[in-house]
Amino acid sequence: MTTRQSSELGYFVRGQAETLVGDAPLDVAATRYGIVNNLNHLQDEMTQHGGNLCCQTSPHDGTAAYFAQALTSTSTVALMDGMPPVPVWLRWNADGSSSRAVVTLRAYMTGASTGTFRVYLRPFQPDISRALSSPLAGGGGRIADITTTSTTVVTLRTIVYFERLTAADLLTLPGIDAIGGVASVRLLLAQVEVWCLTSVGGTHPRIESVHVREWVG
Amino acid sequence: MAAGIVPERAVTIGRTAVVSAVPPQGTDWAAAGAAYDLLDGMPSALIPFCNPQILLTKTARSLTFTTWPRYQCTHRMWIFCVFVHSGGSVPSSGFGTGGTVGVTGTFTFTDPSGGTSTFRTSTAGRLFYHVETVNRAAYATEQDMTCSLLSDDESGLWGFGCYELPRPSLACAAADLTTSDAGMDSDTLRAGMPITDDATGRGAGFLGLTMTALRDSCRRTGLFAGAPLFSTESGTYTEVFKSPPIVLGRAIYNGDTTRTMEVAFYAMADPGSTGSLKLTMASGATVTVAISATTMTKHRTSIAIDCEDLTAADGRRATRDDTCTVELKVASGAGAVTLYTILGGEGTPAVTELLDDSIRPPKRLPPQYLFGRKRSP
Hints:
The complex is a heterodimer.
Chain A (H helix, E strand, L loop, with lengths): L28 H19 L4 E6 L9 E2 L8 E3 L6 E6 L8 E10 L5 E9 L18 E7 L5 E8 L5 H6 L3 H4 L7 E11 L7 E11 L2
Antiparallel strand pairs in A: 1-10, 2-10, 3-9, 4-9, 5-8, 5-10, 6-7, 6-9
Chain B lengths: L2 E3 L21 H15 L3 E6 L3 E3 L4 E7 L7 E10 L19 E7 L5 E7 L3 E8 L9 E9 L3 E10 L4 E3 L32 H14 L6 E3 L3 E3 L5 E2 L6 E2 L10 E12 L4 E8 L4 E6 L5 E10 L15 E11 L4 E9 L23 E2 L2 E2 L3
Antiparallel strand pairs in B: 1-11, 2-10, 3-10, 4-9, 5-8, 5-10, 6-7, 6-9, 12-21, 13-21, 14-20, 15-20, 16-19, 16-21, 17-18, 17-20, 22-23
Helix pairs in contact in B: 1-2
């Protein structure tokens, strides 16, 4: 499966400007096709895999893991210690769904057990008086779990997204206008959090880096 | 005044009417104009959210990043995660899960345009945002952005990023995207309107004239960023980040496999010493930069990175992420070398590009048509 839907050629073609000056015949199909192709391609490139939204890797400190969490009960769900919520901007697709946040973790377990990292996408929460609620408590967010048993650093990847948003969902999603008062709702402002759960046997999950990019699949 | 209205959603441009013998302007061109405005008004991630792990004190600290902003941007959103921690060490409990109740402080941020915000912080880390009104008169394709951070208590800066905000509408002035909004007035795309209107500069011809500039403007400005304040006295390369950042460039032309990532960083060496910064991509490229300045100085380099693989569902080449390993060492002398901030992105685009043989019409079109000129039989 290829990822290109709207740009038939899949790449940008040069030379449009030179054919569109003076008496050049705009109604020549190749020229017009080229412009449409290029616009579609740029839309793809700007929204398909998108730019990076986060490169949350820490300065190298030699030995200590970056984001760590100690869990002793399999029923515990905890925000990874020291990991701030990551703000993300999600764009609207033509069909009304939102773009997706591709979250890549570099993580491991300190001992032989299974750890689950819960990637939680929810509306941006600028209000500092509100404590972060557990993803188990709902709140209009979306969850994607990644499980590993590795005791060496591995790359874990998942995708979270708001799709086919309901009216209730929309009410929970602040647009840029609600934040900055300077634009209308052309992007959704959300945040990605990484929680962990199901740590057994006294071993603990560790995360060395978090990487987020947007992707319109 | 005519304006380009930025649609709220991506636009699907119909292609069925874009064939010979149908009017060159009409409903399909209205969609194309909307797509143009969407691309023109969309923002960039100038400084991708990174983790400086900086301790803020009552002495203001400045962070300088070199970025490549878009002229169209009028407002930027700066986001920080700041929390109070007494004693100068990282708290044992995480954000929102503990900390010393009742310990609060304030944190003041000054943006590059001079705007300031002051926030009330606590031991529970939170996201704070500040909206900068950009001074576009000072616009340059490459800008050093210095922000100032000040705290009245010991606070930790554990998240930091800067993103441009989208534009709802764009002025229809000149066609130069580096000096004006260059919005597209869709009214000039109605059937019966001139292909190119000399008075307004609009019409379908405008889309063609601005296509290359729009391609450059839509670059991925920020691919990774960091403010590690990393210092070493070692004569062997030491990795700066715990895990290397992942980057992926745009695939623009047919056959592209790589894109050039510009990298700008601020570093210095102790007097009498020199240093070296080394970048190594998982895709194979390597570059080193000598550091000899004894005050914090901007350095520039560039390196080849993967661009998207159009045949892979997730865009990655060779089913692996292209990571950028950043290493630092002392090259000579007994002092230390320090890396303050680093940012990688597609950088400032080339201004001029010549036509080449990559231009090909789609196969379904009659071969005699090659971009507006009929070939001789």
